[in-house]
Amino acid sequence: MADRIAVILAAGMSTRMNTQLPKVLHEVCGRPMLDYVLDACRQAGVDRIIVVVGYGKDQVIERYKECTDVVFVEQVEQKGTGHAVMCCVSHLSDFEGEVLILCGDAPLIRTETLSTLLEKHESERAAVTLATTVLDNPQGYGRIVRDSYGNIQGIVEENDCTPEQRRIKEVNPSYYCFDSQVLLEALDRITPNNVKNEYYLTDALRLSITSGHKVVAVTAVPSEDCVGVNNRMQLSQVSKIMQERIQSKLMDNGVTIVDPPNTWIDVRAEIGQDTVIEPFTYIHGQVRVGRNCRIGPFAYLRDRTSLHDDVVLGVFTEVKDSTLMEGVRARHHSYIGDARIGRNVNVGAGSLTANFNGHEIVATEIGDDCFIGSGAVLIAPLRIEAGSHVEPGSVVSQQQAHALGAEERP
Ligand code: UD1
Ligand code: CA
To answer: Which of 8, 371, 53, 33 has the alpha carbon at shortest distance from 234?
Structure first.
């Protein structure tokens, strides 16, 4: 395998998002969109990644400071995608190999597509390869201009298109692979000679072609993957497509999702075989659900929740930062926060953990085989012995809990 570096462009101002947060940190199904692009690069065999940052750079660097395979390059003034790559020259000048260039605002990118791009680049012994896509509505994207033999001649940005070029449906999703030396040569020659007065990376292709290098365009990007996030509407479109992918993967793994469009599951969630997710369930954060569970309708699982096998959570039950062991049932209107609940505990309708005392979050522990009656309020910090029986409507603090031992059950 050739030596590879990826450059991810993420310095843009994202005016159209109307945001204080750098665009690439906006979340798609629970993770910042840049995470998806980084992962696709890693899975395609790239182990050195340069992220070009600018607008909101401190926040981006802070978020990824633990990633040892990522270095950050600052683009102080945003003078275009070509200029963003020029800022990386000191990292590329001694490098002989493939430079993959991608945008941080296109999280639907797939590893398979990058692999196809890299394979094509190598099998064609190309100097530059780009992956393209065909869209029914190409508006807003750079158009791929080919000659009568089908060879690529260049990319023309929408603003610079002739009326005829504007009708071209093959567009540039911004997935490129360059031979490093060819890239450096082209970067030297890009000029801001266009409607926006920017240094366009897309000009590097035309310049490489006119210098006699082999430039190949492969129609390899599924059209839905092309959606880049330039505004909040596109953020919602991308999130919806990502949500469909997450759910379809879970279904392949043996999870039943009764009503996919009315269910939302975080990309970080893990769900076991034969678990059924009923409609209007919302699973957010690092959540683990075992096998044969039944969740919902209208259940809300929050970060750091772990459900073992055969757990049943019903309507309007919220669980946060808690572990529920095998066979726990909480069928109606409960709140379980910061708790560890033992095997086969029945949590009655409307009962809840009072886990915040006004100053801090406090924990509840319930042993195996307990019965928690309807409407019980469990005041944390609290530990209830295995086999205890809590009467419906009780308010239980640690003091009363001592009197609930299994031996005292009727
Ligand atoms: C770009 C492409 C266009 C392609 C489209 C695909 C160019 C000139 N145009 O247009 O052909 O169809 O992507 O989505 O490349 N960025 C920087 N520094 C800059 C400018 C941009 O880092 O100075 C980053 C942005 O943060 C973004 C990416 O580059 O992640 C693309 O920039 P954007 O302004 O969104 O380009 P498009 O107009 O979408
Ligand atoms: Ca864009």
So the answer is: 33
At 240-275, the pLDDT tens digits run 999 999 999 999 999 999 999 999 999 999 999 999
Please tell me the pTM assigned to this model. Answer: 0.94
Task: Give pLDDT tens digits for 179-194.
Answer: 999 999 999 999 999 9
**Ligand 2 centroid vs 261 CA: distance in angstroms?**
27
Q: What is the mean pLDDT of the chain?
A: 96
From the candidates 91, 332, 359, 402, which is the catalytic residue? 332
Report whether the peptide linkage leading into residue 192 is cis, meaning its omega lies within 30 degrees of zero.
no
Q: What residues does the ion ligand 2 have nearby, CB within 5 Å?
A: 105, 228, 230
**Ligand 1 atom with minimal separation from the 228 CA:** 14
Distance 182 CA to ligand 2 centre (A): 24
DSSP assigned state of 48: -
Cβ atoms < 10 Å from Cβ of 256:
14
Task: Please name the residue that has the structure tokens 């209208």.
Answer: 298
332 is catalytic: yes
Distance CA 50, CA 378 (A): 51
How far apart are the two ends of the chain, measured CA to CA in Å?
A: 71
- For 311-350, how does the pLDDT look when each residue is reduced to its tens digit (9 = 90+)? 999 999 999 999 999 999 999 999 999 999 999 999 999 9
Domains and their CATH numbers in the chain:
4-226 (3.90.550.10), 249-408 (2.160.10.10)
Atom of ligand 1 nearest to the CA of 52: 22
Kindly give the number of the ligand 1 atom that is closest to the alpha carbon of 171: 12
| pLDDT of 405 over the 80 cut | no
- Give nearest CA residue, ligand 1 atom 34: 12
